[in-house]
Backbone:
């Protein structure tokens, strides 16, 4: 399945629009990751612990999006938009929401 942020796929014609599909995931960052991130905030640098959590959350949401597109009979999703939000009392939960248009090419 082709997944793209563009509204068309070069070399292909969109034959049928199947509808809007989405995939969401909410993942928690645990105490150790929060502690390491606070150290990174203080000393500077990248927070690889949070980066790994974001990558995992994005991959999970993309898999959900693809599953939902397949259920509609699509073989591609175009116009994908990815949104990140923090949730929870201290922002320790990360939500990734992905949406796009399921199509047959």
Residues:
């Amino acid at each position: 399945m082709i997944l793209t942020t563009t509204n068309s796929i070069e070399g292909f014609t969109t034959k049928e629009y199947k509808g809007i599909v989405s995939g969401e995931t909410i993942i928690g960052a645990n105490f150790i990751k929060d502690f390491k991130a606070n150290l990174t905030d203080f000393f500077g640098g990248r927070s690889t612990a949070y980066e790994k959590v974001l990558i995992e959350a994005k991959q999970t949401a993309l898999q959900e999006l693809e599953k939902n597109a397949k259920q509609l009979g699509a073989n591609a999703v175009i116009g994908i938009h990815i949104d990140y939000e923090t949730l929870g009392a201290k922002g320790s939960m990360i939500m990734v929401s992905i949406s796009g248009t399921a199509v047959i090419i």
The beta strands are 2-3, 16-28, 76-87, 93-104. The radius of gyration is 17 Å. Residues 2-104 form a domain with the Translation Initiation Factor IF3 fold (CATH 3.30.110.70). The mean pLDDT is 85.
